[in-house]
Amino acid sequence: MALDQGDGVWKSGKGRGRKTPKGRQLDAEALEEVRSLLGDTPRRRDLLIEYLHLIQDRYGCLSAPHLRALAEEMRTGMAEIWEVATFYAHFDPLREDDPVPPDLTIRVCDSLSCELAGSEALLAALEGGHDPARIRVLRAPCMGRCDTAPVLEIGHRHVDYATPEKVDAVIASGDFHPEIPDYETFEAYRAEGGYGRLTELRTNGDWEKVQDVVAQSGLRGLGGAGFPAGKKWGFVRGNPGPRYLAVNGDEGEPGTFKDRWVLERTPHLFLEGMLIAAWAVEAERCFIYMRDEYPAVLHILHTEIAALETAGIVTPGYVELRRGAGAYICGEESAMIESIEGNRGYPRLRPPYVASVGIFDRPTLVHNVETLYWITRVVREGPEILNSVEKNGRIGLRRYSVSGRVAEPGVYLLPAGSTITDVIEAAGGMIEGHTFKAYQPGGPSSGLLPASLDDVPLDFDTLQPHGSFIGSAAVVVLSDHDSAKSAALNMLRFFESESCGQCTPCRVGCEKAVKLMQADKWDGELLEDLCTAMADASICGLGQAAPNPIRLAMKHFPQEVGATDGAPPTDGYDTEQALERREMN
Question: What's the predicted TM-score (pTM) here?
Fold first, then answer.
């Protein structure tokens, strides 16, 4: 007889007792549906987010019966499942009485580039033009398509240069799958000699010599922190195995889309670089953490990793592709590792650093997508491909993601010593009728600089004296048609939305900053006190860098913000330390 059929089986004191244990009861139908979705995959705890994606994709939400069934399959508590599901923006966890979301969701990007291109008017038109019971319209952070702003996503299909008419056409078509661009496949890459260098290194290569070549090139981490790429290998290799490699593909800094640009064209230059780095540190497994906003890239990587397995270049399961779920904070390397392990993306306190205590507490090498692209080219073509390029005293090449008020937004490969004038010129100049006013050199974390600072090389270490930094080179150009105050508020609203909430200075500080910045005149002294608390006490780079837009707006655009009590200092916190701890993207 089943336990719940007896009289008072779960008796815990006086009275008749309970026929069932406390908590949500297991639904047999939901259990069968979850088991069908999971198939014969291992019920590993670190795959929890992947399994939540399976349920969300199939049913459009995470119902309480399905979450209870997943907890049963994973042999873990319902509270633990719920804690993870509620952290990520792309999941819809429901209690029993919660309404089921509509079948179709439209996510409208509200980042700075899209706001400049009219996303607020687009959002209003869509909210007023569709039945909310049938179509849900949501705000969403940057989708990494700033060159085609304004952008939105219907299901998993992006609409570039979006208009209500384009949205209606997509809805009428019923095709909500991502559009896969033409790219260099495994066969095409192999025909041009691809993976030949990897094969040579695996046969008789010396990892220390390869590390020296990478160091000679001057390559630094291109996710934002700029740490010398080659040095990481020695740090990780110096720790006892097993070791892992993690690729940070969570390119979430608004204005950044260079990694997507690379992966949608030449994914194998990245993949070979990943395998060279994995060989160098003797990694037992590689994890690619890719943001959920890049469905086409996820499709490409699934396809091409399978091709590598078929060709025998990697063994099945050696490369694990992990799908993010809409959390900017997971661009911070330790938060990414927490997410890979199936947890909330909370940054870890350091030390220890991930080179010694990373995924599953094992030494882990973390690289950005574009960094690995350049590793392939440096190892193949020699360090001269980077160190022979010099401009304004800076060495190397950089990819700049350029958007905003330029004629031809896009990704531009330029010498690392290029100035904003060079970048705007490469992007076709300013839009007709617009005069250059200000620019964001490296995403919202870098704040806003005035057009008068047009002779500063946009590279590592050159912007710090001005209270900014290059980060992932996410350049957004503003004109005389734009408000610096509104741009700064857009940046802080992003940080308010994306703060993980783990530490009070960031969680509360971003919220209070947004409220103070909506005043007609900013209280400079109060905002500076708030900035100092956030920069000094936040756990990771999000809270440490969030004051930048505020401080730089008060310094360079006081007439717009009406800040009282004088301008703040330009370097109110240790930028280098913040970037080293953060390593966004």
Answer: 0.93
